[in-house]
Amino acid sequence: MPKGLVVYDSKTGNTEKMAMAISQGMERGGLEVKVKKAENTSLDELIYADAIVFGTPTYYATISSNMKALIDKTVDIYPKLQDKVGAAFTSYEGVGAELTLLSLIQTMFVQKMVVVGHQSGNLGAISFKEPDDKCIADCQVFGERIADFAKAIAKK
């Protein structure tokens, strides 16, 4: 069974709620999923996963320091994330959510990952402040979409 990993950072709990919803969708889609905070995620866990989803609050149109610290460590495992499925999500209260998603996706491209966007046409899942019921449902569907890609790639 393909493995999924949702890695997130969350200060207020908003990004964590999104992480849980995305992981539920990935599980419904047929993946075995772990959910980890960025500061508790090992490089081995990233290597082990078939699909990796990064989530962070938006801080000044970029990622949190905990997520940045983890991403910076991935230089040590380059190119072991190649051809894994990657996706991104963020919660924000001001501006810059799309730029935050681009920061996460940029890392995925450098690592030669296959990036899955949100079915709505966005780069990833986005919540303004606390995710409402619609956002949670969208995150679950996004998780299912990620699972579909991971299963398709795992068959190769």
Describe this structure in words.
With 156 residues, the protein is an alpha/beta fold. It starts with a strand and ends with a helix. 42% of the residues lie in helices and 21% in strands. The protein has helices at 14-28, 43-48, 65-73, 97-110, 133-154; strands at 3-8, 32-37, 51-57, 85-92, 114-115, 125-128. It has a single domain (3-154), classed as Rossmann fold.
Write the layout of secondary structure elements.
Elements: E1 3-8, H1 14-28, E2 32-37, H2 43-48, E3 51-57, H3 65-73, E4 85-92, H4 97-110, E5 114-115, E6 125-128, H5 133-154
Helix pairs in contact: 1-5
Percent range of helical residues: 40-55%
Task: Give me the strand/helix succession.
Answer: EHEHEHEHEEH
Using only C-alpha atoms, the radius of gyration works out to 14 Å
Number of beta strands: 6
Q: Which stretches are low in confidence, meaning pLDDT under 50 for 5 or more residues running?
A: none
- How many domains, in number, for the residues? 1
Count of helical stretches: 5
CATH topology: Rossmann fold
Structural class label: alpha/beta
The CATH homologous superfamily is called Flavodoxin domain
Gross CATH architecture? 3-Layer(aba) Sandwich
- Give the DSSP E fraction (strand runs of 2 or more residues): 15-25%
Identify the overall geometry: globular
Mean pLDDT: 97
Quick synopsis:
The chain is of the alpha/beta class and 156 residues long. It has helices at residues 14-28, 43-48, 65-73, 97-110, 133-154, and strands at residues 3-8, 32-37, 51-57, 85-92, 114-115, 125-128. The protein is built from five helices and six strands, in the order βαβαβαβαββα.
